[in-house]
Structure formats: C-alpha cells, structure tokens
Amino acid sequence: MKRRGSVRISAGRWKGKALEVPETARPTAARAREALFDLLGPELSGARFLDLYAGSGAVGIEAVSRGAARAVLVDRDSSVLEKNVGRLGYAPDVAVLRRAADDSVRALAARGDRFDVIFADPPYGDGPGVPPGLEGILARDGFVVVQLDADAEPPELELLALKDVRAYGRNRFAFYRRIAEARERSRTTR
C-alpha cells in the first residue's frame, strides 16, 4: 500500500507519535482533531470510543492517548492501521477490526459491545455514508460524531437526533444523540 504521508498525535501519552496515512485516506487535520477533542472534553475520560473508517487510526488512537479507556478502529484495509497500532508498543486498549463499517457495526452489536463515542468519517461524495444500526451499539448517554466536508449537509441517522454542528476549516462535525435522550435532555434544561 502506498503512503500519503504522516500525521502526529498532538496530546496525551502518545504525543508526538507519527502515524502513517494510507494513500486512499483523507486524514482529519491536526487543528480539527484538536477542536474535536476540546469539544469532547471530560466526556472522553474513560470512554469507549469507536472510530469508523479509521484510515490511519489517528482519531481513535488520539482518543485513547487523551484518556479514553478503549478504542476500536474499523477500516476495510487495515494494513497501515495495524502498523500504526504496532508503533504504539503495548496497547491492549486499542483494537483493529478489518471489515467494512456496516459489517463491523453488525458484528459489534451481536457481541453486545457499546460505545460512549462513535466517530464516523465516511468517504466524502458518493461513498458508503454512515452505516445503519449505530443506535444498537451506542451507550445510553453516548453520542455519535460524523465528520463532513464543509459543503455537506448532516445526514439523517436512524433513531438519532442531530444536536449540534461545528465547523473547523474544511471540516464539520455533526453531533447526534439517541432521540429519547435528546428529548429528555431538552426537558431537563428548560
């Protein structure tokens, strides 16, 4: 597989660690990753984190580097991803699934896995989009973050309500919660 370059982890226990980027990946810019983790703040501490369409794995690896308890990195072609995880040394809190995102969501649901944060960065344009079934692997108070191109509209996700959209350069992050929890939070904040 050809390399596109590298990205560095910007904070936490693996700060400065360089990760390879597959040629087919579009890595989340360091500034956008920094903004994302600033938004996640204390909710990241001890979280179970799922990184769909992981590419280099930079987002999921940085989540663990910054305090998430565990990350599962999903990508159909995981050769670079596995190499990057290997560069971390002993990292039992970072796992790689070499499968398509929709197959991974079904497999994780069947195993009973639940995640506090699900990050999805599907290919822009005519790519596969966000896989269905995320509500089945989302922890009760968890949320989904979808990375979008600046010009794209946030997708409608089954049983999930769009709560916020934040823009950082050419990247936008759409934040979703379960519809029931989103309604409950709205009632308690009035």
How many helices?
Answer: 5
Number of strands: 9
Low-confidence stretches: 182-190
In what order do the strands lie side by side in the largest sheet?
Answer: 5-4-3-6-7-9-8
Oligomer: single chain
Q: Specify the structural class.
A: alpha/beta
- The level of helicity is 25-40%
From the spread of the alpha carbons, the general shape counts as: globular
- Number of folding domains? 1
- Biggest beta sheet attributes: 7 strands, mixed
Mean pLDDT over the full residue set:
88
CATH architecture group name: 3-Layer(aba) Sandwich
Give the terminus-to-terminus CA distance.
53 Å
Q: Strand-residue fraction?
A: 25-35%
Succession of helices and strands: EEHEHEHEHEEEEH
Gyration radius (Cα, Å) is 16 Å
CATH topology: Rossmann fold
Under CATH, the homologous superfamily reads: Vaccinia Virus protein VP39
Would you state the CATH class? Alpha Beta
